[in-house]
């Protein structure tokens, strides 16, 4: 059949729901979680492959919980270092020198009362292909050697120009939304007029990857991460670390463009000399595998959203890597964006829900970037070892699990203190907080409350009357609501903890978002009107309907 309405003089424009720029941790996570929620995306990446430098090493338990929702937590855990083995993080003059300060001796925390999963210790270069595979399995198309070369935005969507870097061919793509996950050198942010603030550019680094036989001194120290403070080292400071591959290591040293130094000044011989100083063995046999340039900066976007353009990962928040949170934050941006954009595109939420991504993730980005900055002053500033780092006075568990979403897609209680980070041990699953992990049983198998979340909004209640209330609200608003009745025959609560840990008593309910944060709760009996009101507020739905 001939479609006479088609104007064949115009090139066909490819349509996609979401165009993601950048196949790093932020872009691939966004694509994967969008795919999990049924929305396909096109991911364009100018490089030929995912990351070839180890960079981010280590996944926080909250990231592993997100990966568990996507079914890739085991693959990530297998790809990385075994966290039950010793893992030292120190400040010292060299790998072999006596440390000035020990920051961490082990990550073998017992988290079983807080989370159904633990930490991961895989490198970015191992994680990105896992994300890309799962994103692809859920319908995302990842196109390498493809560059975004400008775009325009209107009220209905984004029109983007792409270049195939292999052939030079150009094409136009039309998307409902564009996600700028284009890293620390983002052009997306500037193109939509979003400014940035923060401590600015901090230092410049040569990151080397090398192979060496470090022999006996590395036995039992395969993980060692050493922040170097040593006047012999170029720039006086640096960092040494292992990778997922035995015998392959990374070492970074600083250079100063204001002193006329450039990345290209450092020859292979210079790099090998710096590696030997950082190791503390000036005769060591070293095979230099690669080197790359990085800027450490503290640069935070003034907004993460401009109309139909959304920023994620380093494009939104560049932070020094001291403390290992940049990549983790990038993944969690994608986790949040996935369900929010998907619900908006499917018409289950109002476009206003996107504003909550900005409010929630920006607040977290500001907080975590300052934490990393304080760590930089301590760990990678000559003479800084005696300073307090970002963790000063804080329980490490709070960093892992204590962050809240306030002023976003939640219905805070009247007495909410609006604290962004709370102490996880005393937290009580109030709106804005992490929905607590409680071990339950289903079909004789242990299951965490956390395993009930991820795909949709979930109502957790002891009273089965919430099933009918939720069904009514779901039909009325067109929003899927999954009801899990805890304490009955289906979900057994062996220690009878649920009602107290969720603060909902025997009659009430907790409304949990797909990312496992509590959106709303009540101690009152099943009430469709109250539930509908909460769902509307959280999802920016109009009061009509
Ligand atoms: C030495 C070092 C160590 C680190 N260690 C840790 C750590 O231990 N833990 C941690 O959590 N974080 C760590 N980080 C930080 C972490 O690597 C970053 O936060 C993370 O890479 C951010 O991911 P992203 O997806 O936002 O950006 P990126 O990984 O930078 O990805 C952005 C991608 O966008 C592509 N791109 C840009 N513009 C275009 C365009 N116009 N068209 C197409 N593609 C484009 C780029 O090629 C790039 O691949 C470290 C960083 C460094 C440098």
From TrEMBL:
Keywords: FAD, Flavoprotein, Membrane, Transmembrane, Transmembrane helix. Coiled coil: none annotated. InterPro entries: FAD-bd, FAD/NAD-bd_sf, RIFMO-like. It comes from Microlunatus soli. Residues 16-366 form the FAD-binding domain. Signal peptide: none annotated. PANTHER family: BINDING MONOOXYGENASE, PUTATIVE (JCVI)-RELATED, TRK SYSTEM POTASSIUM UPTAKE PROTEIN. The chain crosses the membrane at residues 12-36. This is 2-polyprenyl-6-methoxyphenol hydroxylase. GO terms for molecular function: FAD binding; oxidoreductase activity, acting on paired donors, with incorporation or reduction of molecular oxygen, NAD(P)H as one donor, and incorporation of one atom of oxygen. Its cofactor is FAD.
